[in-house]
Hints:
The chain is α/β, with parallel strands linked by helices. The protein is 59% helix and 7% strand.
Amino acid sequence: MMLAAGETPVYLGPIVALLVAAGLIGALFVRLRVVPIVGFLLAGVLIGPHQLGVVADETQVEAAADIGVMLLLFTIGVEFSVERLARIKRFVLGGGTLQVLLTTAVVAGLCVLFGLDWRIGVFTGFLVALSSTAIVLKVIAAKGVTQRPVGQASVGTLILQDLAIVVMVLLIPILGGEAGGAWGIVRALGTAALVLTAVIVVARKVMPPLLERIARLCSPEVFLLSVVAIALGVAYLTSLAGVSDALGAFLAGMVLSESRHSAHALSEIMPLQMVFSAVFFVSIGMLLDVSVLAELWWMVLLAAAAVVAVKVATAFAAVSALRVGARTAVASAFLLAQIGEFSFVLQQAGAEYGLTPVGMGAEGGQLLVAVTVVLMTATPALGALGEVIARRLPEGAAAPAAGATAAAADDTRDRVLMAGWGPVARNLGHYLSVNGVPSTVTTLSPDLAADAENLGHTVVRGEATKASVLHEVGMDRVKLIVIAENESEEATHIAHVLNGLAPGVPIVVRPTDTTDVVGLYDASVDRIVDTHRAVTEPLGGTVLDLLGIDHTHRGHPDPTVVTRFVADPDAACAHMEELPPVLPKSPGCTECLRKGRRDWVHLRICAQCGFVGCCDDSPGRHASGHADRFGHPVLFSAEPGDGWAWCVLDEQLVHSAETPAGAS
């Protein structure tokens, strides 16, 4: 009965429309090289109840949007660890604090000047003071300036804004007239301090051993569920204490950032966070009524211009106070010139106490939505404008940002990334350490991670296929990637992902089972160490050494390099079509080496299975013998510089696609 066709759920159509519109418009904006969040906003405007009405009731997506806010703040909290805060503390405590205070004061002053109550002015100042963390981080990451002074100044200011929301939310009841005077402010700040202390103390005592036990299960599904439960659970507990649930999620992320499993947690929750965050931004766009925008367009443009002017001026003053130079201050100020997504969290909190933007009621809410959507959409252009203006200013003697010198000095590829940890990787790690080569290990297992750390390796907990884990690894320093502890199918998947995220970095794979040569070849793996040969050949060499038998050979073909013969497309031989990539079975004639002989003349490789045999001018003639025995007719030359193959059945010489027909 449950599987029988029935009435379509009410929520299904709107959710499908929301996700499809977000995906299509987001993809369009990615093609236009604009951050997809802008596309999500416009998708919401398009399908919302005020325009096409595809989603007629916004309450149908409010729950998903609320979860999106919490997960977004949670991931921001995870990324902004205490260690990271310490590195840019002068930008956070100095520039960020000054920017929030100046913006709030200027906006409140302007509101009072126009006859509004000071409480409305301060509330509006709170709304304007916040910038879009999500969009600005995307823009500076796309520009590659995260570690430069302009990026650090922007990030430091954003962190302080996110932290300031805690105090702002607690002050809203006072601004709404439900708690009075200085005592109310002191009580609100005291409540914030108690909640922060309680969450941090309890979480630091409970969370590390809890995550350690969960991680030992090595189950991504269980770990993901646990991380989501922690994020939403802490959010729920803080809401019971009278603090915003979204802020509780942010605090949970901040605490989790101190755990050894922070990168793993971030990698697991990011796909989920992206979906719900897209819903959140679409839901913001749905609030906009284009008819109101058309009617009040002059007010929207005037308000947007005023916001940009105020925020550029206050952010410039705040960053300039840190003496980082006018260019950095101008570029940062224009990046921060929009209104942030969390202003809507404050707006909803203020509405419960009768507070609206500039005291305009419902029209004020529409004005805030319109200005926010316009400025969020214009953020990439504002950032570019800031760069243009900054370049025209005289260059000051700005002090380098904290850690910038060290980052520049470390900007070299000198590190080996080992994806996975086990007996083979352990031995390889020892070999690298002895030879002074630094290495980083990624693994899900806490026990294996502890073992690697005890041996002096840098360890990042998580799967090597997750972007946040690789960000923690620092792929700009990785010179070589080794995948040594996975089955062939898993290794192929990891190699595909790593080759896409770190193109040009060589990849070495040692599968633990039968080698999938075709899959690894398609994944652009540079070297394959076959498990059985990796054991047999050193063992055979050791035995021959003890027997006093010279077993040196020419050293080609390389049995770790996948090769493929691609025939000239004009070749008439049908046996040359679609030959697979093969891994040479040995560094010389396989049969001759088994017999301890090295008297071959030339070598040929079977284009079907990788067997290496000696030519017909050699005593053994093992290449032709293999072709006759196994029905593999195509043999191609293993000699350096040769580019031809011989079909035993058709007795035809065929040149490769890269070799001219007249070449020998």
